[in-house]
Amino acid sequence: MSSPLAPSVTEIIIEGHVFPPAVKPPGTTKSFFLGGAGERGLEIQGKFIKFTAIGVYLEVSAVASLAVKWKGKSAEELTESVEFFRDIVSASHTDLEEYTPFPIGFSKDGLLPEKGKVVIENKQLSEAVLESIVGKHGVSPVAKQSLASRVFELFKETKPLKEYHHGWCI
Fold first, then answer.
1. Are 124 and 132 in contact (CB under 8 A)?
2. Considering the domain 12-169, what is its CATH architecture?
3. What percent of the chain has pLDDT over 90?
4. Can you tell me whether residue 29 is helix, strand or coil?
5. Where is each Chalcone isomerase domain found (predicted)?
6. What separation in angstroms does the CA of 145 have from each of 3, 77, 113, 142, 157?
7. Burial, 34: exposed, middle or buried (Cβ in 10 Å; 0-12, 13-18, 19+)?
8. How far apart are CA 3 and CA 85, in angstroms?
9. How far apart are CA 134 and CA 148, in angstroms?
10. Where are the domains positioned within the chain?
């Protein structure tokens, strides 16, 4: 996925599940790159039990648009910044009139489903889903840290845009 318009990212493997560097999700003509990934789990009787692997994919223009405000911050600062993830979740710096429906697919075998199981067409609900993963009290701190670290690295090779639009999917 290396082109002048697409960031160079690698796959991430979580407990044997491979998140490819780029996807074209069902229900959209847009391609997305892997922003980050991590597991979701719960500590039960002193042992961390992993039960879900989560990948967060961003539209190609997301890095340049986020760089306007966030380039220059460290990976640690991004990881700890509620506002950084809120910008990703709400796309507050984009044209809010343009909204892409949010397809969700589930897979047991590690393959991207051909069709989404459900499409969230409500912007607020789709934001709430992503917020539940990487927001202030998100269920996957590992995905949150992965997303911040990878975007930080991509900022190094990105020039910020003055006008932009980005989207996301999980």
1. no
2. 3-Layer(bba) Sandwich (3.50)
3. 27
4. coil
5. 14-94, 103-153
6. 25, 10, 26, 5, 20
7. buried
8. 26
9. 10
10. 12-169
